[in-house]
Each structure stands twice: as C-alpha cells, then as structure tokens.
Amino acid sequence: MPTDPGVYVMLNKDKQIIYVGKAKNLKNRVRQYFFNSVKTEKVMAMVKNIADFYYIITPSEIDALSLENNLIKKHKPRYNILLKDDKTYPYLKVNVKEKFPSITVTRKIKKDGAKYCGPFMGGVNVSSVLEILNMVYLIRPCDKKFDYKKPVKPCLNYHLKKCLAPCAFLADENTYRENVNEAIDFLSGDTSKVEKILKEKMTISAENEEFELALRYKQGLESLEKIGLKRLTALNKFINADILAYTTNGLYSTVNILFVRNGRMMGGKNFSFENAFLSSDDALREFIMRYYKDGAEIPDEIIVGIELTDSKLLEEYFKNSFNKQVAIICAKTGVRKQLTEMAEANAEEHLNTNVNRIVHKEDMTIKACEVLKEKLSLSKFPHRMECFDISNISGVDKVASMVVFIDGVKEGTEYRRFKIKTFEGADDFKSLQEVLDRRIERLNSGDSHFSKPDLIIIDGGKGQLSSVKEIFDKHKITDIDLISLAEKNEEVYLVGKQEPVVLDKHEYCLKLLQRIRDEAHRFAITYFRSLHDKRNLSSVLDRVKGIGKAKQKALIEKFKDLGGIISANKEELKEVDGIGDIQAELIIEQLKKEGLK
After folding, report:
1. Which of 118, 275, 353, 405 satisfies CB 3.0 to 4.6 Å to 91 for a cystine?
2. Over the stretch 290-312, which tens digit does the pLDDT of each residue have?
3. Crossing angle, helix 462-474 and helix 428-444, to 10 degrees?
C-alpha cells in the first residue's frame, strides 16, 4: 500500500461497493482493518464481508475527502453513513461578468458565466476564507443589484474597511477588477501575496494604534495558516471528462482512468497489460480505441498528459462511430494538468505495487526456494519451511514462535506458539531444545495438525544450531534439513560445516530467509508482550482488595491488557461483571499508587 493520501473502496464477494473511506495515509488507514485490534461491531461486521478492495491516490487529504463524498453519493455503500439530504460542499461564487463583481457563498453551481472556486472542506471554513478576501481586497460580500446611476449610502462593511463601497461610487473600477483577479489567484492556491498584505496591514494598524483592527488582521493570518488551499480547484460543473495516464516498465504497462462527471471526481480504474506498447502515444491510442468500443460511457473530453499524434483522427472516429463530439485534450497547465498528474501517480503506483508484485512473486518465492536448495546443498526442495525464535526478558515469560512458509509464502494458519515450561531462568539453547523436542514428538505422534517440514530454520548462530542438532539426533531425524540464520552478518550456518555460507545481500533466496526469520521474531515478540502485559495486570490487580481470579479474568477479557485498564474510567470499569462502584474506585486508587494513572 502507498503512504499517499487517497480513497479506498471495499467490495464484497459480489463486487458490490460496501464501504468508501478516505485517508491521509492509505497504508496506515487500511491496514487497521486487517490487524487484530479492538473494533466496533459495525467495523467487525464490515470486515467480515470484505472480499476485495481498491484505492485511488489523490494529491491531498482534502481531495480525498471530496472524492470520498462523491463516491458515497454515487454508490450509497451499505456501511457508510448515508445522509438523507443531498447537500454539497460550499463554493465561493465570483460574478466576473458584473461591473463590480461580488464574492458570495453558494452550494449550487449554475451555468451563468460566474467563476466557482472550491469546494471548501476538511476543516476549511468558507466564511473564514471570505473574511480574508474582504480584509485584503475589500471586495463586496453582498450580491445586491444596485443602480450605478445613483449612489447609495455605504453600509457597515465600508466603515470596517471590508469593502470599497462601489455602490456609493467610492471604488475605482480598474483597481476593483485587479483586486478581484488577485482574489481568484488566491482561491486557486496562491496564498503568498495575501499573507504579505495581511502582515503589512497588521503592522500599519498597530503603528496607528488601531489595535482592534490589527488584531483582526492577526486572526486573518492565523486563519490563513489553517486554510491550506493548495488542492485541486473544482472544474466547471458541466465538464464531463475521462483523464487517462499510461506507464510502463518495458515489459508490463498500466493505464489509469479518472472519471469527472458534472465537474466532480467520480472514481477511477486501472488496466494492466502483459505486453507493453512501443510508445505512450501508441499505447493510449490503442487503449482508447478498445476501451470505448466495449460500450464504456463516452465523455465530452478525454484528457491526457502527452500530445497524441492521432488526436484529430480519434475525434473523427468518435463522431463517425458514436455520433459523439469528443475533444482529445493534452493538458499542459491548470487543473487539467493536475488531474493528469494525479492519474499518472495512480498508474505508476498500480504498476509498482500490483503488476510488478505479480511479476516478481515467482522470483521471490518458488525460484528463491530453488536457489536456496542449490546454494545451501539442501537434500530436497524446501516446500514447507518452519522457523523458530525465542523471546523473554531475564527468563520471565519465556515463549517461542513457529512460523510456516509454503513455497516461499507465509501460511499464517500453520503458525504455532509455545510457553517454555521445563526450566527457570534465561537460556535460549535450552528453550530451543524444549520447543523442538515438543515439535518433533508431535510430528512422530502422527498429529495431522503438524505437517512434516522440509527445512527448519533457527534464528541464531552456530551455538543455537548445535543445540537443536542434539534434538534431531535424539529423535534420529535425518530427512529434514536444518540451518540457522545469524542476524548480525546474515550468515547461514549448516550442519556439519565449520564456516557459514554468506549469500549475496541482493539475492531473493537471502531475502526469503530474512522474511521468515523476521516473521518468527515478530510472532514471538507479540506473544511475549501479550503474556507479559497480562502478568503485569494480574500483579497490579492482586493488590486490589476484593478482586479475585474470576474478576481479574473478566477485566482481562474486557480490556485485553494493562494499558486498557489504565485508560479506562470508572464507568467503563463498572461495565465488567462483578465490578461495582467500590471495586472500580479501588482499582483506580491502586493504579494511582503505582504511578500508572
């Protein structure tokens, strides 16, 4: 997953969209759904129904929010909060055709020749934006129609220095028009000039001892910092366009399409090809011919980031074949250029994380296993690999993990974890011997839950390998290969060999060993922390009067660990069976005594 902002779309087994969400960081947000963590019942119900998902990268979180809003309105996913009204985000309307244009807030875009800037969302208060424009450029905030032949008395905005009062014939038309143009630049994302003017006005007001006015300008500067207008400016409502971007790695290629309907982003798609075209020009031409021939909705515009040699020919093709006037546009500046860059980012990301992953998957898995067999002189192809790791602190809560990779791919359902039971203190060698002894005994017993491995990997060096070899000899195991991987220099130790094998750090076979070793380490640490937290929690609760083993168990089931107890308030503690006012207060008091709350 990328760490860019964007929108993710969850689908069920029937390919129906069941949830649309936005994220500042796609990777961090989406991964939360698939990790073991406390979730609400609604989220748990949704996760159970997810069969697939896709995502669209956006230039900023605000753009992701806008796209999320459009997709929810269009698809009405089951697990989204669906508002009954159909209100849209606010825009600022600039009546550029008027002699003295006004800037007003609206939620409806009309084909009236006005310029619409926005939408404003993501914590951006449109009223604050309008206030800044009034302070800096003194543009009238009203949309009143007035007679330019007869002046009227200026309103309060003029006296507050928020309007030039064109209604009172106090404004110069050229100066006013220049201010309007600069205001439009500001709404398009250029905030530098506005910041400079506000600072100048604040300084002058302070020097003139107009402190209330200076404070207003200071507040305007603070609002400016929060606004963050650097995002895609909305297209005209009546624009219907597909934005296409093509990328290739020389062997495989991807085309991304973003859909804009009635000026709003409606989503996107990626298409991948096993063979790359000779040039981007040819690729896009071929794709356009095939894609729209299959009955896809034909837009008014097809926007691309390069000049297409056959753009006029394609326009003629659409007119003759579909009786549709289509403009093929090469975007060079403005919002269309931003949209092509957005499509290009999605195409690149899809190629790198999806197409290339499929291409290289065999290199990183099956072929890596084949190379591993050859490089380490294994007795057989390592179809099933098991890796063991130990975790403890000073011999307390000693645990071990066993993770399994099948043909180079992790098989989570086969993972196992062990508590070390036969001795006190910390001893990794004895711990490994106990775990492998138990593992092989289960194997010899014919336990169907434990398939026979082809290769066992130990996290450690020569000493760890030797200790496990003793267990192999005890059980007379000769048909399972055994190696260890030392983390310091990534050296591989083999049974019967004095010197380790050093694999090239760029080889997929070493990366495979590192993946399985790191996964074993992660799984062991996770189990250790779980036990350690429960032990600490039990230790604290043992010192609370009236909290026996049954109530401790109920508290652990509810809050999972000590951190959950610490963050819980009195009412949340009372939700646990058997915990009343007195017990809840005693628990909180004990946590405070130990400096935990």
Report:
1. 118
2. 788 755 678 899 999 998 888 88
3. 30
